Here is the input.
Amino acid sequence: MRVRILPVLLLGLFLSGCAHVVSEKSLSLVDARITFEELKRSPDSFIGKYVLLGGTIAGVRNQKKGGELEVLQAPLDSSDEPEVPGYSGGRFLVASPDFLDPLVYKTGRRITVVGEVKGKATRTIDEMEYVYPLVAAVEIHLFEQYEPDRFYYYPYPPPFYYDPFWDPWWHYYRRPFILHRR
Here is the structure.
């Protein structure tokens, strides 16, 4: 019996690590052959195609016709999560017909988007004009912001070995358990 259960459990463990962050329906639309470098070089040649992109939010704008995200592109890992921005191919814009709340879509949050390529748009960064690939969002997935645990770090260099359950003073404040009182 154990021999039959073990392969099933191992298969379930391996398959759970391969889950994508966007739905299968959205992934079926995506043309996986389109790279971000090709899209950035000539966005007009991919109009109408669907792409899967990810990165870090650099800004959000809301207008009467909807919201717009400016995203600093980052490569995606095997589960379609953007990697920590060490390399970027540039920036792209994500257009949405909905209001994009700036407190939800904060600068610095990582995002994965499935969208239809709509061409290019020109905006200014500081005083320089920048040409962005423009993508109309079909599905947007936001990732939790990473905040380091402030209690994890020690105010002094930690010892080579630290056991949080070891207490050399336990016998000084230990009290006997009393069952009956007279």
Summary: The mean pLDDT is 81. The chain is about 15% helix and 30% strand. Strands lie at 50-63, 66-73, 91-96, 110-125, 128-142. The helical segments are 2-16, 24-29, 36-41, 170-173.
